[in-house]
Amino acid sequence: MGLPIARNLARAGFEIRAWNRSPGKAEPLTGDGATIAPTPAEAAAETEAILTMLVDADAVIDAMDGDDGALAGAADGVTWIQMSTIGIEGIESCAELSEERGAVLVDAPVLGTKQPAEQGELVVLASGPDETRERVDPVFEAIGKNTLWLGEAGAGTRLKLVTNAWLVSLVEAAAETITFAEGIGMDPARFLEAVEGGPLDLPYLELKAGAMIERRFEPSFRLALAAKDARLVQEAAERHDLELPLLEVVAERLAQGVSDHGDEDVAATYLTSAPTRS
Question: Do 87 and 166 belong together in one domain?
Fold first, then answer.
């Protein structure tokens, strides 16, 4: 996600200094005029804004804090646009760090996967101080098709958790429906045909169920990341004393597939229910 986001910003005219834990993954950005920095601190030096898009809260904090962290190189009052999916505790840690280090936090996770990121069609779930909007809206316009402003920092993360709860539940339901159809001798393609265009149909159902039927698991959203996101949903539910057994089962089921299929698309959760299929 970070690569296409940085690329779209560079192509929109922003001056980009990028850092990645694996430098070779950021190297293609040089073709778009970006500079690759050896440390987060050097990437953030003299910048107006820092944007983080990393796998989890630990990675975000590691990149921002410490002697070589981005905040060590940034000016006081820098805008920190945090776009990773890191859960409620994660964004609270970011808020504490930003306050300690004099940064202004904008919590802005996104909806979308690899292809929407490449096409600049993400949906940005933005939250943070009102005075930052004029500064960061051009950033969001360069990478997304729509921005929802939701209030104080943290609201973006909470809405991302809600949408992820729906996403992972839908994918696991599709996986077990396809497995069930095959198990009772029914062509699962006829299921998609039966619901097509009606109130039970969904574009995401067609996309993921089609991938399961055709055994196509090239990742647009890796199963390992979906399992991580489901765990964040589960942690948030427990924190708020919510009893949501379906989401508990979905999180457990996604986690079961990670060891064998974590680098494949989330649709590969189907293989946990139908492990003998290939």
Answer: no
* Residues β-bridged to residue 52: 82
Q: Note whether 252 and 168 are within 8 A (CB).
A: no
Q: Of 126, 102, 122, 103, which is closest to residue 112 (Cα–Cα)?
A: 122
Best CA proximity match to 219, nearest among 158, 263, 153: 263
**Counted domains in the chain:** 2
Residue 144 contacts residue 119 (beta carbons within 8 Å): no
Domain that holds residue 79: 2-152
Q: For residue 101, give the CATH number of its domain.
A: 3.40.50.720
List, by residue number, the catalytic residues: 160
pTM greater than the 0.90 cutoff: yes
Residues 175, 265, single domain; the answer is: yes
The string of pLDDT tens digits covering residues 56-65 is 999 999 999 9
Residues in the chain: 278
